[in-house]
Design a protein that fits this description.
Layout (H helix, E strand, L loop, with lengths): L4 H13 L14 H17 L6 E5 L3 H7 L5 E5 L2 E3 L3 E2 L6 E11 L9 H7 E12 L8 H6 L4 E6 L3 E2 L10 E6 L2 E7 L7 H11 L12 E6 L4 E2 L5 E6 L3 E7 L2
Parallel strand pairs: 1-11, 3-7, 4-14
Antiparallel strand pairs: 1-2, 5-6, 5-11, 5-12, 6-7, 6-8, 9-10, 9-13, 13-14
């Protein structure tokens, strides 16, 4: 059966409106390409409703995360909400989790084919960051449908910015994540496709396939240093990044 993009988006949008982010009727019906197209169609609906895309996320960039979700290539989603370090999230999130990442803000566009030097030159600042995800659906059961649901993205929490020219080598940065004071994960920037800049290079090459591009002012979440850590009501999370900074968040009890 031919892919009817408009009808697919209509159906997934209607299901989303009733709180069904992974409708049974669509399991196994979408290709990866169609999942991305559905994601961007839903983004257009949300934007028409007043929400604003502020950036992009690159997901599934570290081997532990790829193994966790049984998908062995990067993926992209979009970011709609950002908060400052210390933000407290409500307890009614859907199966929430967090991932420690480097987030960058672009001072200039980046086009497909850009090398690491061009990407570095386009970055204005870097932030120690936590991505907050909601596992609204089972990513391992149907990755295409998970892409349509924006790869579980909920929000990003950002620490203090550091100018790119003052940053240590991103690949050598180590993060330690503590949940309620207990160390839950340790990882290096090199876990992100060998270097976090590689995630941006990949994204700059992938987005034009869908009529999108990296623009000045965009935030980019470059991918998790570690596996995703689940969160529960009352949890407090802190991530430190060597030579860079820290970021924290919590969930209401």
């Amino acid at each position: 059966m031919a892919f009817d993009e408009a009808a697919t988006i209509d159906s997934l949008w209607e299901a989303r409106g009733r709180g069904d982010f992974f409708p049974d009727a669509w399991i196994g019906r979408l290709t990866i390409d169609q999942g991305y197209r559905a994601q961007l169609g839903i983004l257009a609906r949300r934007s028409a409703g007043g929400e604003r895309r502020i950036g992009w996320k690159v997901a599934l960039t570290s081997k532990p995360t790829q193994e966790q979700f049984n998908f062995h290539e990067p993926a992209f989603g979009h970011v709609l909400e950002q908060f400052s370090s210390g933000h407290r999230f409500p307890a009614d999130m859907i199966r929430p989790g967090c991932e420690p990442e480097i987030c960058v803000r672009l001072a200039a566009p980046i086009t497909a084919g850009a090398d690491a030097a061009a990407v570095r030159a386009a970055i204005e600042v870097c932030y120690p960051a936590l991505e907050i995800v909601e596992l609204r659906c089972d990513l391992r059961r149907d990755m295409a449908l998970s892409l349509a649901d924006n790869v579980a993205q909920k929000a990003v929490v950002l620490g203090a910015p550091v100018r790119m020219g003052d940053m240590p080598d991103l690949g050598g940065i180590e993060t330690r994540v503590r949940v309620n004071g207990v160390e839950g994960a340790v990882g290096l920037g090199s876990a992100v496709l060998g270097h976090p800049l590689n995630a941006i290079i990949w994204l700059a090459g992938k987005l034009p396939e869908y009529g999108q591009a990296l623009r000045a002012g965009d935030l980019i979440m470059t991918g998790s240093f570690t596996r995703m850590l689940p969160l529960a009501a009352g949890d407090q999370v802190a991530a430190t990044f060597t030579g860079f900074g820290a970021v924290a968040t919590s969930v209401a009890g």
